[in-house]
Design goal:
homotetramer, alpha/beta, two-stranded antiparallel sheet, globular
Chain lengths: 159, 159, 159, 159
Amino acid sequence: MIRFITTGGTIDKIYFDALSRFEVGESALNEILNEALVQFDYEIVPLLRKDSLEMTDEDRRNLRDRIIADDAKGFVITHGTDTMPETAEALMGIDDKIIVLTGALTPARFRTTDAVFNVGMAVATVQSAKPGVYIAMSGHVFEAGKVRKNRDANRFEPL
Amino acid sequence: MIRFITTGGTIDKIYFDALSRFEVGESALNEILNEALVQFDYEIVPLLRKDSLEMTDEDRRNLRDRIIADDAKGFVITHGTDTMPETAEALMGIDDKIIVLTGALTPARFRTTDAVFNVGMAVATVQSAKPGVYIAMSGHVFEAGKVRKNRDANRFEPL
Amino acid sequence: MIRFITTGGTIDKIYFDALSRFEVGESALNEILNEALVQFDYEIVPLLRKDSLEMTDEDRRNLRDRIIADDAKGFVITHGTDTMPETAEALMGIDDKIIVLTGALTPARFRTTDAVFNVGMAVATVQSAKPGVYIAMSGHVFEAGKVRKNRDANRFEPL
Amino acid sequence: MIRFITTGGTIDKIYFDALSRFEVGESALNEILNEALVQFDYEIVPLLRKDSLEMTDEDRRNLRDRIIADDAKGFVITHGTDTMPETAEALMGIDDKIIVLTGALTPARFRTTDAVFNVGMAVATVQSAKPGVYIAMSGHVFEAGKVRKNRDANRFEPL
């Protein structure tokens, strides 16, 4: 049983024409999983709708507590890319759970996007990897604490 | 280093208007990996362009030999869905390699498709799983020999 | 008031995995008009689901009779591309109506398709042109009787 | 011969991850026309990259002068939606030219967008309508001076 938790980020940015602005909207995760023809039951917990530059240590503590209190063994967390490595590190050290963070460098609702591939990576990682915390981005499965976002090159890299 | 091998299947079906017909065309895998913003080097080996109902035991032997002779440790193989379980079983028992088969129930070139998610699953599995043979379909990572395609319901299920 | 009539063709071809085959399915026209944010009321009449190589003279007579009997002044007809010029000619000579045929060289449900642009062309032509019969394909608005499909080059051209 | 002139607007908004922001980028018009399999030669003149709330009367004068000085008879102008009616009115009264303004309420690079349909409408209008100035939006071909944008309802309506 995989628990999905959404926290916001570029993956869920939508254009609001009335505001002439893009903001984090309702998560695209449900559409992604439907289109992927997944055959497992799932539940999506919409925890936050934040750009990850606005994530606070309190947000990270709440997320960690939420995961600890949850019976599920596998977690996929969608998150903004800018502070994904920080959040991943804040989730380390929880026994017996496989926690995978992912997101996208281009919104899921764009025609050309990495969002769908990344969620696919996360869903497979949570089924294949040993307990621990991971980031699935840029085609790579990284262990938490061993990855950074290279903002200039717009990609995730090993530390 | 991940070696990608394409063998055909629905994932790569294209509409040829001059023929008024759909056939397996050039693989969509390169576009999928580019759009996913993957940061690893990769090589795609276009081995076959077959609907999997036309795969023969000789084809499967050639594929197995190809993998054994290859130095790479990780393989992602795109394949038609109808006989993917058979081909997966034919690849079991090769030491020290992680082999993941995937494909799609709807062509990659369709607007709504499971292809991108499935390739994402396969790319993550080849990095996270123990040596062995796997199928990544229907949102699930299956071990070879423990999966079947349910044609009526159009999904992959545990045996 | 625009009456939409669907007759089939490549524009509406869908992949039926259970059959390993593509066939004309339910029309994509409703999704196209919704996504285009059109603000007029419309009705879609699903007349046929034929590949246009299978359209008969009787089909064309029925279509003509249907249009004559209809109060509406403007008609958009989606149709297979192969015999679109023949059907257009069979509809000439009906007073006071603007009739525009269109379709697509690639199915509407594909990621890259001319279908949406073509329907947009047809919807504008039926509002802008003088009474008569037209084909909107290949970026061009043709008068019936003055156009052919060049099958080798996969495009519509003036006769 | 259709001259295309791009001035910016939502149709061309792109997400710049490095800036965590969406801005008007290079026009999507070329991709739209290619995908539509248009068979005419065309030239795209990238005049401006403005959100239309930032269009000035001087910008409108320059656009008008540009059109008057141009030999072409048909013009398709992509433009932001907010002040498209104002720009349309500023272009009235130029003899012997068919000028069609269009744009989109959702960026062309989104998966679900009105952009492609709207450009299709404009390309057909410039071939079918009498000399004058038009707006092709919301599934409707409007004459300049007889249309407004209803911002609350996010649609174009007759005045």
